[in-house]
Amino acid sequence: MEVLSTGEKIKRARVYKGITLKDICGDKISVSKMSCIENNKIKPEPWILEFIADKLDLSMNYLQQDVRQQIKENINGLKNSEFSHEHMESHACQNRIPAGLLTLKVLLLISAN
To answer: What's this model's pTM, rounded to 2 decimal places?
Structure first.
């Protein structure tokens, strides 16, 4: 349920695949522009997303999904799942988050929607 910006998705996929900025950009995109996209300073044009999706073998839908959409999907998933108190306590313990704080965060997210 990790929420990533478009730039973060691109950067993670690129680094994971061992591709440099220079390699991915080729002669189509400037390295500085791609760096700004990865660092969320500018929003990529649709043709750049298509170019990058092809180079990194990612779906356009995945790259186009913004943070707000991802959060809404995660909240809807929580609403529709049987997210028991015991499960939340277990998750909180594994991630060293106080269970009450995790419960509060989930409830706030659900009620805000």
So the answer is: 0.64
